Every structure is written in C-alpha cells, then in structure tokens.
Recover the amino acids of this structure.
C-alpha cells in the first residue's frame, strides 16, 4: 500500500511540475475545467503529492514498532479517514471505468480501483487485528 501511495505522490508531483491537473495515465483534464479551481493547479498537485507521502508514512507506521506506539484509537481514526478518501477516489474510478460517468477512466482503471480499495481495507483490518488488546 505504501508503494502505491508513493506512486500516487510521484504522479501528482510530475503533474505539479507541469502545472497540470490530473494524473499520469488517467483521463486528461480540459483547460476550461482546470481554470475553475480556486487554486493554482501546481499548488493543488503539490498538496496532493504531500498527502500521498503522508499516507505512505501512515501505511508504513501500521507495520513498524515505532508506528505501533501511536495510540490505537488515533491510528484507527486516521486509517478510517484514509479509507474513506482513498475509497472515494477509487469508487469514482470504478464507476467511471465500468459504467461511464464521463470522467474518462477506462475499465483497467476500475480494476485498479477495486485493488486499491481491497488493499486499504486489508491494511486497516490487519492493523486492527494486530493491535487488538489481549483478553484474559
């Protein structure tokens, strides 16, 4: 999951350097649509890239000793927020890839969206199971 999130961050950084919205390998964002955003495209993409790096750090924290020192409820809250955010984006990819919302994602993006949701769910489940308090 961390590698996938770092790939997301790298793609966003690549587009930030070009001051473009979207994601490499994804559907193009039309110029008129890009002008409607409240902030510069490069700034928006740099924020998205930073979010991807932060999410990768959280993913790594779920399996490291140092990360396991974070209070369990706080980490589960963060993982739940990540699951909702990642699931929302992946859900759009799935719907557009298989049903067609008009965004431009293809069927293989939909398959990737399913994989991303499955990995996010498994990361959250794995952390919750591994850090479950031991009952006596």
């Amino acid at each position: 999951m961390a590698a996938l999130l770092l790939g997301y961050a790298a793609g966003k950084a690549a587009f930030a350097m070009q001051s473009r919205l979207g994601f490499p390998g994804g559907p193009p964002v039309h110029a008129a649509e890009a002008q409607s955003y409240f902030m510069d495209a490069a700034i928006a993409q740099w924020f998205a890239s930073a979010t991807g790096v932060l999410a990768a750090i959280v993913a790594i924290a779920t399996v490291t000793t140092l990360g396991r020192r974070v209070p369990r409820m706080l980490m589960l809250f963060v993982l739940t927020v990540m699951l909702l955010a990642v699931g929302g984006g992946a859900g759009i990819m799935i719907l557009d890839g298989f049903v067609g919302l008009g965004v431009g994602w293809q069927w293989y993006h939909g398959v990737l969206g399913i994989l991303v949701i499955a990995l996010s769910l498994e990361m959250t489940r794995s952390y919750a199971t591994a850090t479950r308090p031991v009952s006596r």
